[in-house]
């Protein structure tokens, strides 16, 4: 079977792309309270979709935060496997708006790419699954396996309530294995299976000096400058060789094995300069950019601000300075421990004359690694290769997906990460996009995969 | 004479305060193009004022930037001295608005202080002079000396066009001496004459990394972080002992003489902790806070920004990072040379993987020092003491007034700095204010001073 489903996708391509556009038009930004209603619209869109294509059950489940969509298809029979499909319908903020060539929430196709916030991360990839379910059910009348759908609305704000849901509704969400499509390929049309993900943690540093902005002529020389103090603090946390200088940060991290370095070097790499515009990469001393990105922990200042940002000059000593920092972790590192080390370091180097406060981000995840030769993984590789007509590569990546850690911790079920994004998708950035042909080939891959792992 | 003028001020106090409020209500922010019209309204206000009180001449003079107000009173006779009075009607931006207890451009009196942007710097002090001219002309029918008024609208953006005006209109602006009221007293009701001002220069550092914000999971470990790079650059320019570590920065600076240290220590100092809320001062190694502020050069980061500043987290490597820096200079330092040293230092320490650009601020001024026992200065001290009933102190201050350097360079005339601001005025900050009784005593001082230096 599955032939009819493939034909259905081809014949309904236009209608499906339009439906995807309707989905992307909903500005479901989870970090911004102003978009609370849009979040609900996006969830309702999915519930309606599942009902329309004949799922046995679909509902919007309330959480203490944004709702989660749960759905079930049970008609593949008791001897067919059950998959738990996870995705998220929330997106990152679109700002700065002025850097978008087209409106982030008015999807537009240019040069074979669909431009919109969420086109790749993750609404576009979620929609591919929904469309494949539709194809099977409309064209074949059934799916080759039982499906449980779990699509949350809080991934971009750390999946704040998902753990609680997965934990308390263990019976409802139980399955034989899980599939997640919230990742990318190492290069366009290069089938890629993630066998490792990084962990994640973060802090915010707030430095407070004078209780109001001061005239730099009247007080310069008497008062510690919060922005300068914060610069000294940050400079003491990572040196210019990209080595993190926070005591204990690397404790428990195994050095990257030679064979793993080889594996990483074999991965067809994108050109960093093409994808990012930088003339030179910068990575941890002793590691290549690819090795550091895939296999070593990182420390990034995501945002920093204080004082005057307007036109011209304003001769002040600012009252406050803030830095937002996140780290990507590898196996052997505990996110909570790392947060403590970061806080201790900041407090130890904080200079006199300012008050330094460290806020620990709730968002946190352990790193994850899976066995690359598990049958559910190898079957995925086969499906990929069939659809893209290219050998599948196995990689570790720097991204973090907390749900992966939680599903493993709570259900101990195998997790298959089927990503279809490309390095040029500009996730989290202005002009996020997704290639139309990856959309086609990705759905083809899913058709083959369900066919392989489901009831023949 | 001058008695009638004093009485006039008392009798018309209410009306004058209301008129001052009307002046302060005009948001004449010079750095923001959006306020171009308000700038003209403020200039027109002064021209009309001078006409109404009987100045012989008053006009708004166009410049390549904001207009300048020029006025003349010539009826004191040819054997009376002529003073050039300088002030500015433009103000600093009012942001952040949310930190004001009352609207910055809706003046409000609370606890004996008048709250408004410009109440002290400099519209309030300019208005005191206008009111005193009014008092003399309405009550006595004449002024004891000839007056040339020069009130610009670009002081807060570096007096960009004033030098050109002063230079090209040398005949028109020529006078026997100059009086400037754009400074403060070291403590409320403590008569203070500035005999030294600091010089000024500034740069903006722009660090550019990737051509768009990057996903920290996909690129962390491969790409230099502009905010971290900028933090390293800044940390290399001033150490934690508040010593500026830019090579050559202190060249030509004479160490603060012991007697000058004594003089500074004798100045009744405000409590830094009361005025700023900091628990501990931070000053250059080997100097007290007061010594550093009055007599040593400074380096301040006035503003810094890059990456995500919104609610929650955004896991990006930002594309750019910016820092605005200004320095206060002392005799022996050349602003242009200092700018070059700053730029050279930044370029020398700029790391690979980012592009660093240094923008030199146009705003620049040499430090200034005057002889404290010049008769025009001692007469000012007498007038102060008479009005405030307290001995006058002589101080150097950290502020910079480019016009002082230019008037000296172009006209070689004595310059008397009569400041009436107080340390709690919050210049350039939210909740700027000016004490009502300083307004009264300041005008009294001016009445006595014009009487002393004018024709008896």
UniProtKB/TrEMBL annotation, chains A, B:
Gene3D superfamilies: 3.30.70.360, Zn peptidases. GO terms for molecular function: metal ion binding; peptidase activity. Keywords: Hydrolase, Metal-binding, Protease. Pfam families: M20_dimer, Peptidase_M20. Residues 195-352 form the Peptidase M20 dimerisation domain. It comes from the Bacteria. One of its GO terms (biological process) is proteolysis. PANTHER family: BETA-ALA-HIS DIPEPTIDASE (PTHR43270), SUCCINYL-DIAMINOPIMELATE DESUCCINYLASE (PTHR43270:SF12). This is Succinyl-diaminopimelate desuccinylase. It comes from Virgibacillus massiliensis. The lineage of its organism: Bacteria, Bacillati, Bacillota, Bacilli, Bacillales. The gene is dapE_4.
């Amino acid at each position: 079977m599955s032939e009819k489903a493939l034909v259905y996708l081809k014949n309904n391509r236009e209608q499906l792309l339009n439906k995807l556009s309707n989905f992307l038009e909903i500005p479901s930004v989870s970090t911004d309270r102003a978009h609370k209603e849009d979040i609900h619209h996006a969830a309702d869109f999915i519930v309606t979709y599942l009902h329309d294509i004949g799922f046995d059950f679909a509902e919007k489940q309330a959480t203490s935060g944004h709702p989660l969509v749960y759905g079930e298809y049970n008609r593949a029979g008791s001897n067919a496997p059950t998959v738990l499909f996870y995705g998220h319908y929330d997106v990152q903020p679109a700002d700065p708006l002025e850097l978008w060539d087209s409106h982030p929430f008015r999807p537009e196709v240019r040069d074979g790419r669909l431009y919109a916030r969420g086109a790749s991360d993750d609404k576009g990839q979620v929609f591919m699954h929904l469309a494949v379910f539709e194809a099977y059910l409309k064209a074949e009348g059934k799916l080759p396996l039982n499906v449980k759908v779990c699509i949350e609305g809080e991934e971009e704000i750390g999946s704040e309530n998902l753990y609680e849901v997965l934990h308390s509704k263990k019976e409802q969400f139980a399955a034989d294995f899980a599939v997640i499509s919230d990742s990318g390929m190492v290069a366009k049309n290069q089938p890629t299976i993630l066998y490792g993900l990084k962990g994640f943690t973060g802090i915010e540093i707030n430095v407070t000096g004078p209780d109001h902005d001061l005239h730099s002529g009247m007080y310069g020389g008497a008062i510690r400058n919060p922005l300068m103090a914060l610069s000294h603090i940050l400079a003491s946390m990572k040196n210019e060789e990209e080595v993190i200088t926070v005591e204990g940060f690397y404790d428990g991290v195994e050095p990257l094995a030679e064979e793993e370095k080889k594996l990483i070097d074999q991965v067809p790499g994108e050109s960093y300069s093409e994808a990012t515009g930088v003339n030179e990469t910068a990575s941890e001393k002793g590691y290549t950019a690819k090795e550091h990105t895939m296999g070593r922990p990182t420390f990034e200042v995501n945002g920093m601000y204080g004082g005057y940002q307007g036109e011209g000059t304003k001769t002040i000593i600012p009252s406050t300075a803030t830095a937002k920092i996140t780290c990507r972790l590898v196996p052997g590192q505990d996110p909570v421990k790392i947060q403590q080390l970061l806080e201790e370091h900041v407090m130890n180097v904080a200079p006199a004359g300012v008050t330094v406060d460290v806020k620990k981000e709730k968002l946190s995840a352990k790193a994850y690694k899976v066995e690359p030769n598990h049958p559910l993984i190898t079957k995925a590789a086969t499906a990929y290769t069939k659809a893209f007509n290219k050998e599948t590569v196995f990689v570790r990546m720097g991204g973090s997906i907390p749900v992966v850690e939680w599903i493993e911790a709570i259900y101990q079920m195998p997790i298959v990460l089927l990503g279809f994004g490309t390095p040029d998708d500009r996730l989290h950035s202005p002009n996020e996009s997704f290639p139309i042909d990856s959309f086609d080939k990705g759905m083809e891959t899913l058709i083959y995969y369900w066919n392989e792992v489901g009831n023949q």
